[in-house]
């Protein structure tokens, strides 16, 4: 599968909390796709269709990448994002694939 590079730009007016990231009882996550759309519109090479129609780990990767940058800069924690980061780290340490549909609420 061909990988594409994108330059992700988070608009200044957006905060991570704007995503409204929630975990449903089913284990799937829910968030505001409008925020993701705004990020795609501000970025280079980041197509909304790839996030909406691609594997769930595409959009989860974007969300967690944003969150990790926030945390590296001493930003506020988000309990759902913390859970997701822990799950990804555990799966990677076990060698399990990280492709799931949790990004499709």
Description:
The structure is a single chain. The protein is mainly alpha-helical. It has one domain (16-94). 47% of the residues lie in helices and 4% in strands. It has a two-stranded antiparallel ribbon. The longest helix is centred in the middle third of the chain and has 17 residues, at 56-72. The mean pLDDT is 88.
Architecture blueprint of SSEs:
Elements: E1 22-23, E2 29-30, H1 33-42, H2 48-53, H3 56-72, H4 79-94
Antiparallel strand pairs: 1-2
Properties at a glance:
4 helices, globular, mainly alpha, single chain, about 100 residues, two-stranded antiparallel sheet
- Give me the number of helical elements: 4
Q: Strand tally, please?
A: 2
Low-pLDDT ranges: none
- Amino-to-carboxy terminus distance: 25 Å
Strand and helix order: EEHHHH
Major sheet, described briefly?
Answer: 2 strands, antiparallel
Beta-strand portion reads: under 5%
